[in-house]
């Protein structure tokens, strides 16, 4: 879902700039069956993966055999020379590594998961997008032809995204025999035209109406099935049906919410007096459709009458309304993003600059980077470095390397070239040198074991680093991070100080961010309950019940017993006042004992009291007999 969310973000940014977007999705034909093991291992080796992992992958792909079974008949085993098991969770990861070279050619506009590839273009007009994306598809097709990767032409799809009021949708002519038609229609007159990618339906204006309708329809079928499994007397335990709802209904209903739910309000990006203010996202009608499915499933979980208030049902089942569930998903997504490294590059840049500006004038810092690009002339791989003494630029360098290389090699060689150049510059005995590298893989190879690819560059770097006491600092994307200052000798002094150092010590920890996320989720849940509890009857509110999204203990009761308890709370049951309220003229409003049926009558009914004491006496008698 991260890929879809990232793409939706890019499209919304384009809409804010009055731009139009064109998306093309591609699918590899027979992806897992056609994977070439030796080529995969070679690419993983070029990517810098350690040798033990490569050996494990080679063992995973070797000595594979298959057979065909038809009822009780089996064919002979046949050895498989290529491909990877489709049922293994490792296979999609391996195929992403297999296609990494293709996706790395344009990391900004190409992305994919396993054998699903997407590429898009942003421009002032759709014609401009189609012209650019046609060239992109041709390059991908050429790469696939050279690397024995075939793309299914029947699965090529294209969608134009725009909020301008026109129905123009140009096609993309890839070759005389291949033309990609944009998605402009849908089966049935009631469905919105949309393109389905990674399970999410993307429509022209990115309203997600088609996606929500599809998810509601699918989840409603499951909710109906759960509702038909039980009634107020018979059926599985309520706790089991609640688990089925959480496991089957909720994920199906809310799939893709990370991409389509922005919250109930957002910051306005339009012009005029509303710019910079919070405006509604107009999600009310879509949330209402999803709420109907949750309410339907809740009525299947609980043994209650259909007139029981929805708020009471949600509380008694421990299930969230749609808005609360969506807010929890949004908060969890934000928490996960905050846990990722380098999520706030502005803060990282400021922190790195603080460290760099405080360096002594004789300190040397070497920045290096690698590049790998493609155009009509072919592939280009090169490196560049810049050397500073203090904060003054003293030397630069650049160069190209063999095209049978990758950006990993360029970064390794660039760091070595920069270090070699820095060692030739005038320096003092106390001069400190820092290598600032943006690739963690290169840093690991510089500090520890050299990879097989560009091994000479790493071994030479090891020799120079050890001889000249060169330090290495990670600077992601040349934005930088602060170094750690936690020396054992200063730990106690730092703990006793009231001054918090800038950098990691001043930033929220993962556990602290998690506490904030839990607090926000709790506030959403409790806020919904405070808002909706007053809508319930006074009889229900007298119970003074709390609301939590966990399984209530009473759901473990049998359905008949649970039905009586819930009816007592909500006053929606076989009671005289209830039948009179809904004008049930044929209902029996009096108990066989002669008194009117009330919620409290069960406790005082003479017949019920006799049955209770009789059952209690029999239980005590059986226990005494068993003990003797």
UniProtKB/TrEMBL annotation:
<dbReference type="InterPro" id="IPR043502">
    <property type="entry name" value="DNA/RNA_pol_sf"/>
</dbReference>
<dbReference type="GO" id="GO:0004523">
    <property type="term" value="F:RNA-DNA hybrid ribonuclease activity"/>
</dbReference>
<dbReference type="GO" id="GO:0003676">
    <property type="term" value="F:nucleic acid binding"/>
</dbReference>
<protein>
    <recommendedName>
        <fullName>RNase H type-1 domain-containing protein</fullName>
    </recommendedName>
</protein>
<dbReference type="InterPro" id="IPR000477">
    <property type="entry name" value="RT_dom"/>
</dbReference>
<dbReference type="Pfam" id="PF00075">
    <property type="entry name" value="RNase_H"/>
</dbReference>
<feature type="domain" description="RNase H type-1">
    <location>
        <begin position="360"/>
        <end position="496"/>
    </location>
</feature>
<dbReference type="Pfam" id="PF00078">
    <property type="entry name" value="RVT_1"/>
</dbReference>
<feature type="domain" description="Reverse transcriptase">
    <location>
        <begin position="1"/>
        <end position="202"/>
    </location>
</feature>
<dbReference type="InterPro" id="IPR002156">
    <property type="entry name" value="RNaseH_domain"/>
</dbReference>
<dbReference type="InterPro" id="IPR036397">
    <property type="entry name" value="RNaseH_sf"/>
</dbReference>
<dbReference type="InterPro" id="IPR012337">
    <property type="entry name" value="RNaseH-like_sf"/>
</dbReference>
